[in-house]
């Protein structure tokens, strides 16, 4: 992929300005980090089929995170999901504490009745 990315860089730069998010095989493109020496970690939109054999070699450099609305939307969604996960973890911890307390109290009551 490294040689393909560097050889297609100028061709795809105009496509990234046009906000093309569908690759040549008609699938939605996905966000990948570049693995080339020239652009390590730079984000690009590429074919969803890249790592499963069939691919159309489509890619377009992603704009900076502050400028690309789709990246910003995905980052906002990830942040929202992280907050929801934290809320769920707190609710689970509270439910677990209540359950442990309930079983402890039940055990104490049962112990008192038996003695």
Automatic annotation (TrEMBL):
The chain crosses the membrane at residues 92-111. Keywords: Coiled coil, Membrane, Metal-binding, Transmembrane, Transmembrane helix, Zinc, Zinc-finger. Residues 1-20 are annotated as: Disordered. The keyword Transmembrane applies. InterPro entries: Znf_GRF (IPR010666). Residues 1-13 have a biased composition (Low complexity). The keyword Coiled coil applies. Residues 71-98 form a coiled coil. It comes from the Eukaryota. One of its GO terms (molecular function) is zinc ion binding. Residues 23-65 form the GRF-type domain. This is GRF-type domain-containing protein.
